[in-house]
Write a structure and sequence with these properties.
This protein is α/β, with parallel strands linked by helices. 39% of the residues lie in helices and 21% in strands. The chain has a 7-stranded mixed sheet with strand order 14-15-16-13-12-17-18, sandwiched between helices. Strands 9-8-7-10-11-19 form a 6-stranded mixed sheet, with helices on both faces. β1 and β2 form a beta hairpin. α1 crosses α7 and α9 crosses α10. Bound molecules: NADP nicotinamide-adenine-dinucleotide phosphate. NADP nicotinamide-adenine-dinucleotide phosphate binds next to α7 and α8.
């Protein structure tokens, strides 16, 4: 297996692969087998300070590089990702557990983000605003914001960084990144790729270790002008508080609790297919996973029956094995959290009609599970499940369904299956979410702005908005 090509057991600081000052390391294990994959440095404040020094020193060179040269490096990076897609995907599956086909997709979309921003940056235009009097010109120009701090989660350890590193490097920002401790190798691989294609030393720095120390140092340093975070809402809120002292720009991609509405007029087969993709992809561990499935009474039984058949046919196992559609959960805490949701629902009248227990493979494998007769007083009506559990709620009235869908602090993704054009526009207006999939369970694409409202975050990734977030807008008045 070729995954070792990008397995880096060191951190990239100022163009050198180094260990922690203390020599301490952290073990990384494969969730499908419990086996040790390797170790990574346990870095803290001092190493992070040096990484910020390096990024600050590299900034002028990177920002001043000819645009076409930076774009050329990104094209090389795209090609390196695609040429090594299989090795990078294997590494991802081994540290994170998702099926290899999904890992291949994740590397593919990461490469697509790199290509997208290499294209988009060539259109990062400013404007000349008409002046009210003669002899003046008002220029509005765009500039790279500076050093960018990046903190990413374990569930998409490669593509979450792609959405941040690609626009940052495209516009000329240098990077200090901290991937999740559970899945550091896919993050460190971005450092290896940046180095391989020729980005200057210090342009990309990647650290592993104490989240509080690395995160705290990034947040406290005034030279870091922007922090982009993907992860839980609680940590995101803490980072927003910490950003106040140095008035940093922040982008926050936080938790979700996606409603998935199926109306009586829906194509039920398509809705089941969409629910399978939206709910069970990555073992239910995506921020845009369907968390609450609301089905109108007229198609409820048919939907549940078809969802059961599709779920029962899923192959659970080690993501490296052929045909596996669901891998393990990230760890035993995640398993226990799913069990808590199930016990709570059962106590309140929910019925487990599929799965409901740990899978025979042991470790953190869990059976794909369906609970029917779900109600708004159950825990998952408010909280993010992050596991392979599909609660199905019954509704009669469209307005009730919309009100229930909005009855959460989150506002990331939402989905609806209907063929009524009027209802589609009503949903577009009424659903309080940053993203809406109509008759589609898979909405992530590099061309569109990904991001949430309410407790789900601030800012967008992808689309033209995903580049805007890495730029300052400057106004210059010229009298002549
Ligand atoms: P998490 O616990 O918030 O961790 C995310 C990252 O933050 C990790 O790198 C973590 O480091 C770091 N971190 C933890 N505490 C920190 C602190 N005090 N200061 C600075 N950094 C800190 O989230 P997770 O459990 O990994 O990820 C799951 C969550 O991410 C879910 O809520 C999911 O919905 C959300 N998510 C959102 C999106 C989106 O686009 N909106 C996408 C994917 C995931 P360690 O690993 O070292 O703890």
């Amino acid at each position: 297996m070729s995954y070792t090509k990008y397995l880096k057991e060191a951190n990239l600081i100022d163009g050198a692969w180094v260990g922690a000052d203390s020599g301490e390391t952290i073990d990384v294990t494969n969730p499908a087998t419990g086996e040790l994959v390797g170790t990574v440095p346990n870095c803290g404040d001092a190493e992070t300070g040096r990484a910020i020094d390096a990024a600050a020193a590299a900034f002028d060179g990177l920002a001043g590089m000819a645009l076409i040269e930076r774009v050329g490096l990104l094209w090389k990076m795209h090609d390196a990702l695609m040429d090594n897609q299989k090795s990078l995907a294997e590494l991802l599956t081994i540290e994170m557990g998702k099926p290899l086909a999904e890992a291949m997709g994740e590397i593919g979309i990461g490469a697509a983000y790199v290509r997208w921003f290499a294209e988009e940056v060539r259109r990062a235009k400013g404007e000349i605003v008409p002046a009210p009097t003669n002899g003046r010109r008002f220029l509005v120009t765009k500039h790279p914001i500076g050093v960018v701090g990046m903190i990413t989660p374990w569930n998409f350890p490669s593509s979450m960084l792609a959405r941040k590193i690609a626009p940052a490097l495209a516009i000329g920002c240098s990077v200090v990144a901290k991937p999740a401790t559970a899945t550091p190798y896919s993050g460190l691989a971005w450092g290896a790729l940046a180095e391989e294609v020729g980005f200057p030393k210090g342009a990309v720095n990647i650290l592993t270790g104490s989240a509080r120390k690395i995160g705290g140092t990034i947040m406290a340093d005034a030279r870091v002008r922007k922090v982009t975070f993907t992860g839980s809402t609680d940590v995101g809120k803490e980072l927003i508080r910490q950003s106040a002292d140095t008035v940093k720009k922040v982008s926050m991609e936080l938790g979700g609790n996606a409603p998935f509405l199926v109306f009586d007029d829906a194509d039920v087969d398509a809705a089941v297919q969409g629910a399978m993709v939206s709910k069970f992809r990555n073992s239910g561990q995506t921020c845009v996973c369907a968390n609450r499935i609301y089905v109108q009474a007229g198609v409820y039984d048919e939907f549940v029956e078809k969802l059961k058949m599709a779920t029962a046919a899923m192959k659970v196992g080690n993501g490296l094995e052929d045909g596996v559609e669901q891998g393990p959960l990230i760890d035993m805490d995640a398993v226990e959290k799913v069990e808590e949701f199930i016990e709570d629902a059962k106590a309140k009248g929910g019925k487990v009609v599929q799965g409901g227990a740990r899978h025979g493979n042991g470790h953190s494998f869990f059976d794909p599970t369906i609970i029917t007769e779900a109600t708004q007083d159950m825990m998952f009506a408010k909280d993010e499940i992050f596991g392979p559990l599909a609660p199905v709620f019954r509704f009669e009235d469209e307005d009730d369904a919309i009100a229930w869908a909005n009855d959460t602090d989150f506002g990331l993704a939402s989905y609806a299956y209907t063929r009524d054009v009027g209802r589609i526009f009503k949903l577009n207006e009424k659903l309080q979410y940053g993203m809406i999939g109509i008759n589609s369970g898979l909405i992530t694409t590099v061309e569109a702005p990904f991001g949430g409202v309410k407790d789900s975050g601030l800012g967008k990734e992808g689309g033209s908005q995903g580049l805007e977030d890495y730029m300052d807008t400057k106004y210059t008045a010229v009298d002549f």
